[in-house]
Specification:
- With about 270 residues, the chain is α/β, with parallel strands linked by helices.
- It has a single domain, classed as 3-Layer(aba) Sandwich (Rossmann fold), CATH 3.40.50.
- Helices cover about 35% and strands about 30% of the residues.
- The chain has a 6-stranded mixed β-sheet, sandwiched between helices. The chain has a 4-stranded antiparallel β-sheet with strand order 4-3-6-7.
- Helix 5 packs parallel to helix 6.
- The longest helix is centred in the last third of the chain and has 17 residues.
- The chain is globular.
C-alpha cells in the first residue's frame, strides 16, 4: 500500500463526485494523437482513444507489438512537438498538462527515458545534468554537490566515475546509454518516469543493472510513478509491476497483473486481438 496519497474530489464510475478519493498522479483520458502536420487530412491518427490511471508509487507496464503506437504515446506524454493531441486529456497531479510543452513538463517532474538517446557532442554528462537539475529545481546547483550525488548513483549502477566527464552518449554502447538514462532519472528526481523500451538491446547483465537501478530509485522515493513501455517480459521480473496493459492499434485492449505478460510470452499478441 502506498502511503501519503494526495486527496481531492474525483468523479467515480457512476458519474458522481466523491470526496476523499485518492488523486491520481498521472491520468490519461480518451487520448487521441497523430503526427503534427500542416495538412491534418494527411496525418494518420496513431493513438486512438487511450485511457490509463497511475497512482503515486505505482509501476504500470504497456506491452504491444511494433507499430501499435507505444513510442508515439511516450513522446506525446512528454509533450514532443512532433505530435499533436487531437482530443482527450493528460493530467499530472490533478493539473491538465495536455497543452504544456516538453520543457514545462520536465521542470514539473515528468521524465522520459528515450528508446534511442541522442548524442550531444561537447557536453559532459556532469554539465548536462547540472543544467538540467538547475532548471528542474529553479536554483544553480553546486558542481561539488552534484558530483557527489553522481558518484553515489554510479556506484549503484555499476558505472565508473570517469563516465561523468564523457560527452553525453558520444561513443556510448547501448548498455551505457541505458545506464545513463537511469542515472539521469535518479539525479533529476522526477515524480513521474516514463521508460520507453529501456530494455531494448540489453544483455541480461545490463538488464539486471537497469532493473535494479530503477528499483533502487523507487526504494528512495516511494511516491514515484513509473510507466514502462516494452515488448519483452524479461524486465518485469525486476520491477514487480502493479498492472500490465496490452496496447494494440493505438489503444489499450486488455489490463491485468503479471499474468498478462506471461500469457503474452506463451501465446503472443494474437491472443488479444
Amino acid at each position: 500500500m502506498v502511503a501519503n496519497l494526495s486527496y481531492g474530489v474525483r468523479r467515480n464510475w457512476a458519474g458522481d463526485y466523491t470526496q476523499n478519493m485518492p488523486t491520481p498522479l498521472f491520468e490519461i483520458t480518451d487520448l487521441h494523437a497523430r503526427v503534427a502536420s500542416d495538412d491534418p487530412t494527411e496525418a494518420t491518427e496513431i493513438v486512438k482513444g487511450l485511457s490509463l490511471t497511475i497512482m503515486p508509487g505505482e509501476v504500470h507496464v504497456i506491452m504491444g507489438p511494433n507499430g501499435c503506437g507505444k513510442s508515439t504515446l511516450a513522446n506525446v506524454l512528454l509533450g514532443s512537438p512532433e505530435y499533436e493531441v487531437t482530443s482527450g486529456t493528460v493530467e499530472f497531479n490533478g493539473d491538465d498538462i495536455t497543452e504544456w510543452g516538453a520543457d514545462v513538463r520536465g521542470k514539473a517532474g515528468i521524465f522520459l527515458a528515450f528508446q534511442h538517446p541522442m548524442e550531444v557532442a561537447g557536453v559532459s554528462v556532469l554539465n548536462f545534468l547540472r543544467q538540467a537539475l538547475s532548471a528542474r529545481k529553479g536554483i544553480e546547483m553546486s558542481v561539488l554537490e552534484l558530483r557527489l550525488s553522481l558518484m553515489e548513483w554510479m556506484d549503484k549502477l555499476g558505472m565508473d566515475h570517469s563516465f561523468m566527464q564523457r560527452h553525453l552518449n558520444e561513443g556510448f554502447s547501448g548498455g551505457e546509454r541505458k545506464r545513463n538514462e537511469i542515472l539521469q532519472m535518479a539525479v533529476l528526481e522526477p515524480e513521474m518516469a516514463i521508460l520507453d523500451e529501456t530494455d531494448s538491446g540489453l544483455d541480461i547483465d545490463a538488464l539486471k543493472t537497469v532493473g535494479e537501478g530503477v528499483q533502487a530509485i523507487r526504494a528512495e522515493r516511494d511516491q514515484l510513478g513509473t510507466l514502462v513501455i516494452t515488448h519483452h517480459e524479461r524486465l518485469l521480473a525486476f520491477l514487480a509491476p502493479d498492472a500490465v496493459h496490452v496496447m494494440m492499434d493505438g489503444r489499450i485492449v486488455h489490463s491485468g497483473g503479471i499474468e498478462v505478460a506471461q500469457r503474452l510470452d506463451e501465446e503472443g499478441y494474437e491472443a488479444f486481438r
